[in-house]
User: Fold these one by one.
Assistant:
Number 1:
Amino acid sequence: MRHIRDHGVRKEDRTGTGTLSVFGYQMRFDLAEGFPLVTTKKVHLKSIAHELLWFIRGDTNIRYLVENGVNIWNDWPFQSWLNQTGQIDDYPMYSPEWREHMKLFVARVKEDEAFAQQYGDLGPVYGHQWRNFEGVDQLTQVVEDIRNNPDSRRLIVSAWNPKDIPVMVKSGLPPCHSLFQFYVTEGRLSCQLYQRSADVFLGVPFNIASYALLTMMVAQVTGLQPGDFVHTFGDAHLYSNHLSQVEQQLDRATFSLPRMVINPEVNDLFAFQFEDFDLQGYEAHPHIPAPVAV
């Protein structure tokens, strides 16, 4: 955030919000040193873990998420529903009326399966591409390849499917974290993510923790130790309406990283449950709210 604040250029964006942006940046986290969950503001691990399990299941409907109290994907299908039903002009985004109507939408997604199927699905986003990219279950294949050919340079899962990009407008945007690659050396599994577009204040703390956790899960089921998580960015940006929150966070001192303990009995990537994750020693400053640019 400090690098973008000091060196970023003003750039317009799809949402009309405006950003400070840099192109090309990389961070590296040694997972043996602790779980890389941001400590300068409290991050909701429950949302991260359930979202990751949702991806791994190949699910693309927000119903699973809202049933588990996770609301990070709600804005996009809600806006789509307002648009499809002719209500978009009645509820300006983030107005009190919009927020109240959102609660009714989420409640109906939870309670009405037919409504959820019609309006809660995001289209062929991450989970679909991971598990069914033109008929290929990439996630199952990459776990098998790590076990059987750990020196392969093809341990890649891609969410970027050009054919489906136009369809993904239902979710509001094509995949931001678009491709990841595993790497095995000396009994350690590392993962590098390429993220084409990165909301560094709001989204990136989730992305870091999510892919760190995924790396640990895949390492466990393939009999390896976690190595590094390498986070590579294309357009890394701070939205112009997050800059005061950025300054607030940069003024805070960091705490020691927590430790993530995973149930050692699980040896199947697709068998993990939320209860299998135990975050220990997480100390963080209070959460800093900021609006999502949709």
Number 2:
Amino acid sequence: MDIVVNEELKAYIDPMTPDEYEALERSILAEGCRDALVLWGETLVDGHHRYSVCRKHDLPFKTMQNTQFQSMDDVHLWMIDQHLGRRSVSPFQRGVLALRKRAILAERRNRARDADKPVETPEPVEATSEIAETVTDTPRTEPAISREALAREARLSNSQVGMIEKIQKQATPEVVEAVKSGTLSINAAAAVATLPAEEQRAAAVAGGDELKQAAKRVREARRKPRDETKAPQDTTDDNELLELRQRVIELMAENEALRRELAELRG
């Protein structure tokens, strides 16, 4: 049977470092591929690295079908749950996976809600037992996942989930890569994400130290002066101006994100 590697599913898997891949390769060459690859039909669900090694060396491997999957959404949710339970997954990646799970479940709720909408017909149709049975079989709407439940599942705090969500919506790819690689903390990346895209890219190009300095400047701009009596009441100092500017940028970014979400919900 030909095995299909789905690139969308592959994106859920953190790539191995060269050393980790070599260690796996040595193990399989010495002992064979002991664990079966998990399939859904012809689609590879679990065991991508093992499959890569076996194909490279033309080695045999076992497969097993997961018969519980009914759709690609089920496959995605299974993979997400598998990775959320692994200690090797970084806090940022756990947050990204948990948010993706929430999005999949939200899409399911929308589909279920659409299925519950009455279908307009040009002429009245007499209700029959067959029609009544069809109506009762419409999918039920799944409850929304709360921020607290999402955080518990990802083993994060509520604030960390909020920061990761902000990074996903506002950070440039360069900043996202920095937090994925561990160069930048989640807290610092969320701060940098409030800056205009050009400033984010410039800081990322300058390196990790500049990114950290940019995050520090954002945090300092948000702090109120400890001794407000030293500044005249009728003037605004540079820190207050910078704080106002950052707040405006944040609000604009949040409004844009809300507009995109509303557009997606409207279809």
Number 3:
Amino acid sequence: MRTRMLIALLCGLLFAVPAALADDPFRDDHPERYTVQRGDTLWDISERFLESPWLWPEIWHVNPEIENPHLIYPGDVIHLVFVDGEPRLTVDRGQRTVRLSPEVREEELEPAISTIPMEAIRPFLNRSRVVDEETLEDAAYIVAGEDERVMATRGDNVYVRNLPDDQTESFMIVRKGDPYVDPDTDRVLGFEATYLGDARVTRHGDPGTAQVASSNREIRAGDRLLEAPAGPIRTTFQPRAPEDDVRGVIMDVMDGVTQIGQFDVVVVNRGTEHGMEDGHVLAVYKAGREVRDDVAGETVTLPEERAGEMIIFEVFDELSFGLVMRATRAMNTMDIVRNP
């Protein structure tokens, strides 16, 4: 059976409508029902009904008559209903393919839809690291390749020094990237550890031997080995506003683009030390530019303008990675992020 992607729609109970939802949260052009399509995400569907898609868990109504209401699949039908006079969204199971084998009767379903487009963030999950300089300096490192090769790729052996004493075998190969500098304090919050591939230690020692199991670019002497993350890649996110007040800035954008748009991955200067968690939704505001007021003879700063929303999907100590889910105008580094 295919792996099912759980989506964190709710905590298992009917959510009470908070004060923030006292006004009508639904779009004026919302449908009364919607049939889930292959390729949809929870965010996409929420946008059809709600002004603020991340409020989906607040108005979800569990249907006790269906099995596992925590999952939504292509073919399911989302309905707008009223429960005790309050608007709620609920799901009715649609028709899905069931395959039966001669020996074992097993139901095989399409995977449940994900909260956000996983293809946009998959390269950054469990492979992207933000580490301090000391961690990189203390990590195991490649000293040479076999047969005097300057660079190594998949299947090649490399010689490694400074391996840990715990006989760890699985590592990810990284290269020290640019520093992330907090524009508010000018402090270095960490360094990007650029993912190069995976390696498996075949002989411990000093130097030890490792085989490159996979690579996405050439590997050379000086590249570091960090212990590979344990467990499966996370695919579930519960979109919600942060509990604490958040105000930060976009420090960087991945893939070298200059203007930021929908589904771009960005780095913000707020992390676990500031109460950030994966699933937190932040609004992005264009920083107000300074203009000259010739009438008053002074310089004034224009108001901030809302430019979109992002969802945080990977959190480190002092910074986080976020995926831009909606962009109403072009964004740039140094734009402001805060509670939605």
Number 4:
Amino acid sequence: MAKAYEGIADDLRQRIRAGELKPGERLPAETKLVDQYRKSLPTVRQALGVLQAEGLIEKQHGRGNAVRKPRRLVTRTNGRHQWEKDRVRQSLGERGQTGATEQDTGLTMSDLVFSAEFSELEADEDLAEAFGVPVGTRLLERVYRTRYREEEAPFNVARSRLLYEMAAANPALVDPANEPWPGGTQNQLHTIGIEVDRVVERITARPPTFEETEELGLTAGVAVMVLRKTCVDADGRVVEVADVTLPGDRTELEFTTPLARW
């Protein structure tokens, strides 16, 4: 038998899905819901907590509970890497017209707000193993955040690492003022004579940290996916290791695998 709070949650859920309660619309005050469902305030709050965990509603400061507006969906496919490589040797004007985020979201450059932070770090055991270099090797870390102009939270947080000495062969690559770089990382590597041969991606899922919950605007119960991207050049050398933290409530991963015919 369903508990009282589950019945309230289900009724509100159905009203939201039917469009009776629209995105951004405030729910009735908790006291009114108590009267409407003839249940106690703790029971009503328990029902609202369920809907918050499902990402259907959110508590807004000074406004109470409101139907959550769906975030812009990001569809990330494995075809993005070949798409980026195909653009590596295009002109600056052609490369500057669009980027991978626009491809993933269907937005235009004017819709996006981009930020980049650069720092130096020493490879720990994890990154040293990933690059195949000694612990303590000097790395350049670039942290990228891109968000839809109409939303506060970024689509993801991407931490890209390059071998510092390798990147410094082109001084422009170690200067964050040159971001966003038309053509992305593959074009950056091309400027120092590197061709990416393959990209290996490993995806795991886990609960978010407190910092990730705040930065990505996650509601309770939403997991994050962590994508470890490793770029390998034509000589078999690892040239980039990136960790991308993707919010599970607005990210879709799509993989197409061509199969050899008999």
